[in-house]
Design a protein that fits this description.
The chain has 363 residues and is mainly α. It has helices at residues 2-27, 30-40, 47-56, 63-71, 122-157, 162-176, 179-190, 198-204, 218-222, 227-257, 260-267, 272-284, 286-293, 295-301, 304-309, 315-324, 328-356, 358-362; strands at 78-80, 87-89. α16 runs antiparallel to α17 (328-356).
Length: 363
């Protein structure tokens, strides 16, 4: 097991380097750098002035060297103004004595740079936004996975039954309905003061406010999470994600229920409940386990639609804003977080799969 984890960790590091270099290359294409120069400097810059600005701010060197500076394995660039004698550099903060500046400042040193839009440290921006998304991910995951497993197990216990057909139809419908459709439907039905159920419930005196739920999760960022401001975004995410897990669980459960050892248990007179819980369930969860772990990357980067729809400024929203504003340092930091989450969840998935499947563990 130790050798397996070491091999997987080595592959993870190589994959992370390749992916981050690709993102670094794409974000540092000359059109993006030209747009950055004109945004930070003057929109009427000439081509020569753009090149001069890029050289002064550390964007003019070879790509592989700048990638090394960003990683923190190559010493950061420094420039001395010939007219004033002022020394600037990647690792020299404003007002810092150049002699006190560190030689390297990059990802390995925990320095992600500054946002070119908000002039704040990228680490501060990413930390706050990531925490907001992790809260949304946690609640959505806690609702989605148990519900999906329950639906899948119930559907797969008796393949072809009326319950199986009904739950399978529900699973397919939930997966086929995008978040921007189900989210709007929930808002209209449950969070609108002029349409849906809320006007009727308010007229009957069943609710105190004008709406049953809040159509915006902005208050969850400022005042804290409550059932009223977080129920709709969590339900929207969970409903879309649970269908695929439920269908995988149902297929795996139906296959296990036709296995020879299940038939033997039935012939021995073991109750159907014990057959499902003690014999079939663990083997049926081997395949869905990988699918469940794949939900983490999707929840991290794929909830941008829900975050935008419910006015919740989390990690996905920040990543889209960084791309639209050409905020290179922030976009690179977002890509690092996304790559890290994908690779770590894949490692956990592989290790868990080995523990769940004795044949792989023995091999």
């Amino acid at each position: 097991m130790g050798a397996f984890i070491l091999r997987r960790t080595g592959v993870m590091i190589l994959t992370a380097l390749c992916l981050t270099f690709v993102v670094f290359f794409l974000t540092n294409l000359f059109p993006n750098l030209e747009k950055l120069a004109k945004t930070q400097g003057n929109a009427r810059m000439t081509d020569a002035e753009v090149v001069s600005w890029l050289d002064r701010n550390g964007y003019g060197g070879p790509l592989i060297v700048r990638y090394g500076e960003w990683l923190g394995v190559v010493p950061g660039w420094t420039r001395e103004d010939e007219a004033t004698g002022e020394i600037t550099g990647r690792c020299i903060d404003f007002g810092m004595d150049p002699a006190d500046a560190p030689t390297r400042c990059g990802l390995l040193q925990g320095d992600l740079g500054f946002s070119t839009v908000s002039d704040d440290e990228v680490g501060n921006i990413i930390g706050g936004r990531l925490l907001l998304t992790l809260k949304l991910m946690g609640w959505a995951f806690g609702v989605m996975v148990p519900a999906a497993l329950l639906v899948g197990v119930l559907a797969g216990m008796r393949e072809g039954s009326r319950l199986d057909r009904s739950l399978s139809t529900f699973s397919i419908a939930s997966t086929a309905t995008p978040e921007y459709v189900s989210g709007v439907i929930f808002i209209v039905l449950l969070a609108s003061s002029t349409a849906g159920l809320s006007p009727l419930l308010a007229e009957w005196g069943w609710i105190e406010g004008r709406t049953l739920f809040l159509g915006s999760a902005r208050s969850a960022m400022e005042d804290g999470i409550t059932f009223w401001n977080f129920a709709l975004p969590v339900t929207t995410i969970a409903l879309y994600g649970m269908g695929y897990i439920a269908r995988m669980t149902r297929a795996s459960m139906a296959e296990v229920m036709t296995a020879q050892y299940i038939r033997t248990a039935r012939l021995k007179g073991v109750s159907f409940r014990n057959i499902v819980l003690k014999h079939a369930l663990r083997n049926a969860l081997i395949a869905p386990f990988t699918v469940i772990m794949l939900q983490f990357p999707w929840l991290l980067t794929g909830v941008v639609i829900v975050e935008t729809l419910f006015n919740y400024n989390g990690f996905g929203w920040t990543m889209v804003q960084a791309a639209s504003n050409n905020d290179i340092e922030l976009l690179l930091a977002c890509s690092i977080v996304a790559v890290f989450v994908v690779l770590v969840t894949q490692l956990i998935s592989d290790i868990g799969y080995v523990f769940l499947n004795p044949r792989i563990r023995i091999a």
